[in-house]
């Protein structure tokens, strides 16, 4: 799975940090962030069979922020851009 660019993106996190993958994102005025990820065929097949997705978050011992994985473009992103 890798982060990919998308038409609505407004920034790229970790663009100049070689230890991380660049993360294309849309950042709304309230600080809400949307990113888009491309799954490999193997990942798609695995999720189809298991119905599971794992999410690892690197907090560096800071507070965990709320997360909302989705299978479609977030509805709020469609509203913000219209």
What is the H/E order? EEEEEHH
Radius of gyration: 14 Å
Name the structural class.
alpha+beta
The low-pLDDT segments are none
Tell me the fraction of residues in β-strands, as a range.
15-25%
Oligomer class: single chain
Instruction: Give the overall form.
Output: globular
- Give the helix tally: 2
Report how far apart the termini are. 29 Å
Largest sheet: 3 strands, antiparallel
Mean pLDDT comes to: 93
The total tally of domains equals 1
Walk across the major sheet and give the strand order.
2-3-4
Extended strand count: 5
Structure notes:
The protein has 82 residues and is of the alpha+beta class. The protein has one domain. The protein has 2 helices and 5 strands, in the order E-E-E-E-E-H-H. The chain has helices at 41-50, 75-80, and strands spanning 2-4, 11-13, 23-27, 33-34, 36-38. Strands 2-3-4 form a 3-stranded antiparallel β-sheet, with no helix packed on it. A two-stranded antiparallel ribbon has the order 1-5. It is globular. The model has no long low-confidence stretch (mean pLDDT 93).
């Amino acid at each position: 799975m890798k982060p990919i660019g998308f038409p609505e993106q407004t920034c790229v996190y970790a663009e100049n940090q070689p230890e991380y993958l660049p993360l294309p994102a849309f950042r709304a005025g309230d600080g809400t962030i949307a990113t888009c990820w491309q799954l490999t065929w193997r990942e798609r097949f695995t999720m189809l069979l298991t119905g599971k997705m794992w999410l690892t978050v690197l907090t560096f011992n800071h507070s965990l922020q709320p997360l909302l994985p989705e299978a479609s473009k977030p509805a709020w992103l469609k509203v913000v851009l219209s």
